[in-house]
Fold each of these.
Amino acid sequence: MPDSAIVERSGIGGVIGSNGGSSGGHENGRGGELGASHTPQRAYVTGMLIALSGVAMFFMALISAAVVRKGSPSGDWRPLLVSGWLARILWLNTAVLVASSITLLHARSRARASDEAGFRLWWIVTSALGICFLAGQLLAWRQLVSAGLYLATNPSSSFFYLITAAHGVHLAGGIIALFVVVFRPARRMAQGTAVEIASMYWHAMDAIWIFLFFFLISGGRS
Amino acid sequence: MSTSPHPVYTPPQAPSGFWRRYIFSTDHKVIGLQYYFLALAAVTVGMVLSLLMRYHLAWPRGYVPFVQSGIMRPEQYLALMTMHGTIMVFFVLTTAPLGAFGNYFLPIQIGAPDMAFPRLNMMSFWLTLVAFGCMLSAFAVQGGAPISGWTAYPPLSGLGSITGPGEGLGQTMWIVSIGIFCFASLLASINFISTTIEMRAPGMHLMRMPLTVWAWFVTAVMSLLAFGALLAALIMLILDRSAGTSFFIPYGLVVNGELQVGRSGGWPLLWEHLFWFFGHPEVYIAILPGMGITSHIISNFSRKPVFGYRAMAGTLCAIGFLGFLLWGHHMFVSGMNPYSSLAFSALTLSIGVPSAVKTFNWLGTMWGGKIHFDTPMLFSIGFVSFFVTGGLSGIFLAQPALDNMLHATYYVVAHFHLVMAVAAIFGIFSATYYWFPKMFGRMMNETLGKVHFWLTFVGAYCIFMPMHFVGLYGGIRRYSDFTGADYLAALQPLHVFMTIAAFATASAQLIFFYNFFKSLASGAKAPENPWRATTLEWAIASPPPLDNFAGNFPHVFRGPYEYSVPGAREDFSPQHLPPSDVAGAAEGAPSA
């Protein structure tokens, strides 16, 4: 697909409003995969919203398990104090991830302004910030390990590793999606739709992290 | 049939190669059939397992085939029980009603050429198949299949092979298999929901959707919300098994004389909460499609509109919503706070209201109708019968004081088999007999179908009615041998009766298999609309073309159950015919 398609189909009006599923532009669907050529573009957006509610339920289950486990009658929960270097790293990571959402917004506004090069630049910056975030999470794990806190040390550390790992895996999927959108355009989906749903996923992972972050750091205070 | 504005549409051709056409297909109809045959294979395995168990219960010292030394040990019985429950709940009751029939007919009934995401759909099926293979291979690993039941309660399931044979690699295979199954179900539910929201034909308002579509839609929403919670719980369980964490494993536990060190005080109750937060919605995931199919078929064969269509759609949503609020009634005897038992009890009883509305509406639909007792109708009436019988014992079990006595007895086994298993299976049979002509272009044999119905109907009651009495008498579930305790040994004749009934009912299924495959090969040619029905799947060829509508995508002009409309030309008014084609004098030329 020509790069200009990104510009043409980006933006709210061009994507959500477009019902271009059965129109021209992507008759690349191979024989026998007719449904895809009939799938309206907004179905991808709807599908992503639905998928995100499933992801949200998964994290809700982890969070409620942590809350219930903390109140377990055995009283073995030793709060994991997020302080010192660990706190600094986590705050920095959170700032990096929030920044990545902002660069993502900027990339899309570049696309709306028909600035193809700008779009690609800021889109790749977003992915790079995501990789920085994951590296930072690994650093946070290193801090825990150096403090003698392993996966099985205490339920609080178990949940810390589990929740950050689950979020990290989801975010890694997001990074792959960002790269796919920019380097290997979809055959069935309009490029603007791909940009739209990748952005939705990215912002959602950002929002979920902010929630998880405050959950994890408040765990030490109560 | 009217045509929607698709100016330059050429109907697509199916890929010519065998593999792309039938194996790695993205066509929702092929995928639906793949799910169906997967469920057929799974139900055969599950039924053989149940027969082995029933045989052992009746004659505990009898020779059992497929078992080392011919005498079944208690742990082998538990392995059979675990695998029977798991295979039936996940690979039959979840895949057949939603995966098979939902996949095949949801897009057609809303007038779409396929699911919204065909390749995702293919991936869902293949993951489900991998999960099934993984589950079956648990039989073949060291220690054999797991023994912790389909609920996999820790600490039994969380400690590895120390807790018993099958709890080593077998239990790990179980967890991995169900994890893959969860992921496949999540992908499938995203597809079902998106398709229903975005792919409906012009004129197909929500309140014109067939109740089958409503049921699949609500079921998909439930799977989306439930399977994520199970996935989270499975990850924690596998960490407890392999990484030494203490999510569910208590402190100071002694298993087989060995102190389990390094556990800090986990909480088995936490697993029960997470599991049943999935597990109870799962019950409705199994039964709701059956409710939709029953509503659909009862209306069709009574030649009357569904009584209270809006109430039927509303109660599906109500059951779906309430289904998430009452998981605690599985845990009345778990040591949970008794006040929360009270809340769960009240919520559980409240689900009787939408259930009763549905039952009365089914009866109301039949009331005064010109009922045709064809096989699909018989199985739908059977569904109502089992749903009522099984549902009534639920009212008893929903009360903590009674449940304290009845929990973990055969009363519970009888209850959930009637309401969840047999009723759902009757829904599947009903749908099979009803849609077979559409799926394969041939009719099934009616006489054999009726014989199959009566033998199965009577047989299932013969198996499960006496089971209530065994439970009331204190017959404990999951025990492999009752002859050791005097008060239970007195019930042995009932066990023998139930076992004979089970073998007879299972034999009756051979009639179904014969009818199914014989009709597949040489049944009478099916017309487009053998049941004189109104919904969109009956407006197209049997079997349907690749894009379902051969390019003539329908407009929808009316609701799905317009039977015996006064003044109409026929006693059914198909959804896709414009008003001029259904109204008025009977002399008019027949429409498309």
Amino acid sequence: MPSLGTGALLLGIVVCLYGIGASIYGVRTDQDRWIESGRRSVYALAVTMICAFAVLEVALLSNDWAFNTVADTSSVTTPLLYKVAAVWASQEGSLLLWALLSALWSSLALFLVKGRMREIAAYATAVLLAFDAFFIFLMLGYANPFNTTHPAPVEGAGLDPLLRFPTMMIHPPMIYSGYTLCIVPFAFGVGALITRKVDAEWLKVMRRFALAAWIFLGIGIVLGARWSYSELGWGGYWGWDAVENAALLPWLAATAFIHSLMIQEKRGMLKVWNASLVFAMGTLAIMGTFLVRSGILDSIHAFGGATLGVPFVILIGAMIAGSIYLVVSRRDVLRSEHQLDSLLSRESAFLLNNLVLAGLAFVIFWGTFFPIISEALTGREASVGSPWFDRYTVPLALVLVLLSGIGPVIAWRRATFANALRNLRAPILVALAVCVAVLGAGVSGKPLAVVMFAFAGFALAAVAQEYWRGTRVRARSTGQRPPRALLGLMRRNRRRYGGYIVHIGIAALFIGVAASSSFQHSVEPRLKVGQKIKIDGYTMRYVRPTASVTPKYDAAHTGATLSLGAVIRVTKGGKYVTTLLPAEGFYDSGEPSQGSVGHLIGGQAVSHVALNSTPFRDLWAAVAPEITAPQLERILKAGNKAIPVNRPEEAMIVLALMGREYLKNTPVAEFHFEVSPMVMWIWIGALIILCGGLIAIFPSPRVLARRVSVSVRKPAPVRGRERDQVPA
Amino acid sequence: MSMPAAALMILLLGIVLWIVTTPLHAMPHLRRRRAGQRADLEAQREAKYQEIRDTELDFQTGKLSVQDHEAVDGALRREALAILDRISALEQAEKAEGAEPAAS
């Protein structure tokens, strides 16, 4: 079967090359059949990629250790769902996932525009297939997922312990879906500029795919943050890690595009800016893949090897050069049709929002790539940490939250100062009330956090006011009761009111970020059993240790061979609050040189965080047991000496003895406790953003109905009939 | 390559060839150019209608003064009528061409 997988890849690259040729030949010679054949090449590519992916999945599920990818990322005892997800744990599998998702999303995009945008779609087909050809070339030339070893090993190494976390099963497909969806607007952007057709229909298609990329990237980013918070044992959800930033950059570009696109739709302005954002989204998506897969920057998320740097650099260079050429050479068709009517208008607010988002993206880009830049210029690799990022991003985030409240209450085209002031009065009052309440509650010393709460209150009040006024207008005009009028309002204008829901989510998310980062309490004590420590009014008492041993060959094995932990009783003011059970898992290294017992726990040590969440605060605990305590080392050394490597059952008995010794004669353990307010609002905010995005991406029933009627009726003359349809 | 793998590979090749070559044999004529122009104009019309509704909602919710609303709304309606005129002209041209395909 490995030959079927490689054969599918070879066939895939042939299909890509054929499709590129057919599309370009078809559009150049004005022959629809070649254009159609080129478009269908993308469908055919999807079929070949599904086949290749299925071969690898079957190999994983059937424990076919002859496949190097399977032997490196799975084992007999790896649970079924992790086996399915193990495809994207490896470099090779990740590239295959990228190619598969790209082929599927490209097929969907081309299917949705079938019969429309003929020339643009033909060039877009060629660009999309070129990207797929690149990734298949990487697999065939550098990292073939179907490489095999003979004779096959008797057992696989198992999945990286850090990846044995439920959200990690869906985090990579979400991020990769986001990246591959970013490529769709890029491809259609190239097509539009080559054909000089930057028209309204192109914008409509761009918007939907940019929004889909934005949603998927957003889900992926939040799942990654959740994984970092719950699994990595350092207590944070965002560390400005290179790979986290790499996903955030195209998301910021997409956010800017979704806003500025509206100005082009309504006023025919910002065409150069929008084309640049579309190209930036695509290029940053490829850069994100490059950072994860090239290993060029140190990152906790970079699970790839350092072999793919040069091809990626060439691709990114070509994308940047091509984008600049297209924008410069097509500047005549990208000229603005109108100018701003007034500085006090929603267009201006969107412009400012775009500048802030571009500023954020620039700061994050600079900080992320600073190690590479400094090494290139000075020969020494230097990096910047969280304080550097925070210094620049926090003020920009504050302005962004403020604008998310100002934008909705200002009219398009022109707003008078008196109207704007009247619409802003209630949100300003709410912001002031929040300020007074927060300061009155004794919160001080963190002025930026207080300002963020006030701005978030402002944004929430502005959006609530918009909903209230819109509902009142609709209730008055239709005679409906307010709840029904509200639903009707949202159904009729999903884009506007879905967008407002996103603004609510952004405000909630930033409230969580500001509160948890500014008012977090953290201690890292070394405690003996029975000792306790106080943190932010909570008393954490180390009640007793825990130890468990799970043989690797046991069918129930899902994680660590040896797990050492603690029972922590949490009280506040003498009242019981909760019990936390943090632990640390020790994994098999697969290195016999560490000894028969030593290798069973010589692999990666992974923290299993204990968490107690409420909407007001999170209690977070991690433990680092002293596995190298003398009494445990003594047993380990004796076991290594007495038991040969080929008798793992006896080695497990020694591990059990170590566990018993740990319970009986417990060494001091190092703990990390945190009390962080309102972390839950980050996840709630993210969910609200997702809901808003989903509402905004689907067309309103009116548009759907019109599409149906257009498809079943013959076109009628415009005069008379359609003039009457201009909204009254 | 084992026999089952070879058989699957041939099947895959057959599917790919069928998908890719079908349009080369039988591709119906499309009224593509005019259809493309019409789709673009319809998209412009939808965007303009939406803009008119947005402006109306902005006015109703107190974001626009009466004078500004009248000025903006009037301008938008003029723009919408211009688009409708272009759609109408396109349809007239299509009619004039009769049943002949407009692809050439």
Amino acid sequence: MYNRGQEWFKGYLILEVTGKQLERLINLSTAAGITVWNIHRFGNDYGKMNILLEDFFRLRPLLKKTDCRVHIKERVGFPFLGQKIKRRFAFLLGVFLFVISMLILSNIVWQVDIVGNDKVEKDEILELAEEIGIKKGVLKYTLPPIEQAQRFFSRELEQASWVGVEIRGTRVVIRVVEKVVPEKEKPLNPRHLVAAKRAVIHNIFVERGQQKVQVNQVVNKGDILISGIVGNENNYRIVPAKGKVMGEVWYETEIRVPLKQNPVSYTGKKHENFYLLIGSYALKIKGYDEIPFTDYKTNEEKTYLKWRDYRIPLGWKKEVMREKRGDFRKLTLEEALELGKKMARQDVLRRVEDGRIKEEKVLHHQVDSDKVYIKMHFAVIEDIAVEQTIIDQSPFEEENNNKHDQ
Amino acid sequence: MKNWSRQIKRAITDALDLPQDVTMEMPRITMIGHVQLYIENHRGVIQFHDRELRLLLTNGQLLVQGENLVIQTIWPEEVLVAGKIHTVKYIDD
């Protein structure tokens, strides 16, 4: 057929036609290539038809030929839009303002997000961003070019190894990748490393300072292991001693192991009771059937209704009874000793910080009715060095004095 | 002479099984219910008002009767009529 959209775009007229020879007018105009459509005719000499605006002037001579008269009833389409616009000015103004405000609002930065900062303060980055013109409420056009902003951040933020700036709609995302800086070692005070407890030196590793003891040497608590004073009496330097001294320390521990072991385990069978709580009164609702086992552990869970911070004296209680496995295990002496050793080892290792067991020995064990007493000896290799700050400014003299005292 | 050429045309049309509207300049009429009528190969409007449309054909006339008839579109050889169509009548000369 024909395309109404195209006709609307070109513009057309709705004509009222008066005249007796409308049929001839139609024939002539179609023959002349004039598009007419929606032709109505009422009675003998009155009709209506649509015609393209561009064809209207070509219709004129035909009208004369056929003795017809036309009257433009309505103008439709794009070329006549201007007239309509005048009538609907306020509406169009609204549309225009809407579009404009939409454009403006969508070009404003509404949010500045900072991602990935861990150590650097958010405010610090925001301040920097503001300096370069990235802040809430500015127009996107006024933002600096992204590369420039990134260079600026990389220069100003020393803790960052890379800074990315990204504009996502009305949001500016500043992505910070922080440098991983190795933790600075604390400056150490001048110090000695001394023995924390009586031990036999197992091995010694000196990083800084002067070694004072040898492997297999027995040291007492407080003996200097690595001295912070390097050099001889005339020419010395005080340094923070550093190193690792492992010593063999002896421990004795006593353990008692019950021969009757009763590890709690459940069979998986359970019985549930359900109560309604009114105040402190419990009304049993569910669970009247007989409990199918005798040895059990009961768990109960009370829930009271709450309204804001007030507790309402209404609630429910759930009781779960689980059947326990009833077999008591009686340990043999060997088993008990084995278990005791394990417990003793754990006990010893709890007492030392960084150590391992070198030797262990059962010194003594005694069975007493249903318990076994075990006494054990352990040789543990552990770090025995503790630091001792050097206070005195002339340590050699003091050392000498001490020697005299002893 | 004209009669003779028409006879040849018809013979060819029959022999080749061609549609007659192509060769014989006969109207092709498509009707959608009683609301729309599409006529190809007409030769002009003779008479038109809201109750009647009379079209000229190569041989004879086509009379369309109904109510609220409207010529929706018209081209030199085609016409689309809408309205409530009662009758389509073929009138031989």
Amino acid sequence: MRFTRTRSVVSRRVALVRSAAAAATLAFASAASFAAGPTLLNVSYDVARELYKDINPAFQRAYKQQSGEDVKIEQSHGGSSKQARAVLDGLEADVVTMNQASDIDVLATRGKLLPADWAKRLPNNSAPTTSVTVILVRKGNPKGIHDWADLARPGTSVVIPNPKVTGNGRYTYVAAWGSVLKAGGTPAQARELVRGIFANVPVFDGGGRAATTTFAQRGIGDALCTFESEVNLIEAEFGDGFEVVYPKSTILAENPVAVIDKVVDKKGTRKEAEAYLKFLWSDEAQEIAARHQLRPRSPALLARYAKGFPKVTTFTIDEFFGGWTRAQKEHFDDGGIYDQILAAAKK
Amino acid sequence: MVLSRALHKRYSVLPGFDLALGFTLLYLSFIVLIPLAAAFLKTFTMSWPAFWDAVSSPRVVASYRLTFGASFAAALVNAVFGLVVCWVLVRYEFVGKRLIDALVDLPFALPTAVAGIALTALYSGNGWIGRWLPFKVSFTPLGVWLALTFIGLPFVVRTLQPVLEDLPKEVEEAAAILGATRLQTFRRVILPVLAPALLTGFSLAFARALGEYGSVIFIAGNLPFVSEITPLLIITKLEQYDYAGATAIAVVMLTSAFVLLLAINGLQAWTRSRQGRG
């Protein structure tokens, strides 16, 4: 009895010494890597975690070959707007990779961290990849949902993440609204359609993945609106009890990226940060993105992965809404059209 | 009288008063006062009508009703059932008592999001518990209440426990010998002693519930005017970079919570003084 006790004290001490040693090594290691090359911080949106886990090592290899320099890349992920606020509040991001342009616009307008015309500095509106908002229905499509209008039918229930707090929800809203305009309809008709759809929402989850859980696991709703890029993941996680419906037209969700001038100039990492973003347009990175079910910009790669990306009529936020900043103000800010629609539905 | 006592404090047998008080003030300033003052300051960037608009729109008012109502109901239920749990833990010996005792603290330690997701799964229409219930719990105000009850439980149990442990059995025996029925003993002997602690536990659970976000957000369903809690509307304001609007709602929450807690404290002082007299 006594013997074991002494032994446990000794072993505890050994463990203590060991962990101290480990901590010291760790400190050394990070100091060493700091000395070896610059570190980039990529502040990104939530569901891009898996994507950049694959892209970063590819960039590091490519950049090492090209310039001989080792670059360390740190990632930060969270809700897109939450991340933008963190950068505004002083998180030193060398680059931001978001899923909505307004989350970078705000860094320019409110924070003056980069010029307002940041989107023009890289090709394709500074968005290396895109996705589209699609409708996920239960296997066999028992409710016969084929287009946005079917979601507005009474007796249909559709899960959409909260547009007030999620980009995913906002994209769904503008997709439905824009589809009416694209077909030659009036804003009044668009509003009527959106009102009908949102009156059928039983749960407004606070995130895209939470909405997926509500639909796939809790069995709530006849349909879920989400990005095409989420569909494979949903099927991998929850089985193949679902079908994807491509509406007649939908929004092209662009995932914009930008170098934060104020940070890279202070840290002296502009060269590496710009190379990192440029790499996102390289064949290698575009292929990684395609494998993550994000539509690549490269036509050749889009053709090669065409099976995963059916042709669909799309429109951009600029086409019908005058950009995200204006859409946010008119539709989603307090007292905006989205609030009016919900308040009317309540009465 | 008060003054002379204050002067005497200087020569207290307990040394270190100045140092301790200085540290307390500094600590409280950094942890509590300065952040709260900053919230109030931020709202001063708004004009009065803008402030009023932000805090009194119908949607926000509906959320106050839900947040305060559900928090109050949750604290009330916890006061009753927390007392029962505490009674069982203090008064009886049984197998697995330590385990149950430890379980009570779980809501303290569990990340609130985990609790929220677990409760949502259990009580949704196809969940283990939800499927047997004739009414909906997840994604309704009832779900909000459930989550708030969960996180509030330890506050009541842990504040009552030491008081109940200190209550000598002899007092109850005396009451019984003097002819009191069991109910009379409980109402006139035990409850008055427990009342101040019960109120403390209640107000702690209530205050905790007011600010809760993580667990509620998953189970509420967040339907405007129906199951949106006030903290969600604060997040909503932040989402549109309306920092002032967000802090305006926060200030209303803070002020009303403070007033309510003050009232409960007053009530507590009153019961204590009554008890002293009786």
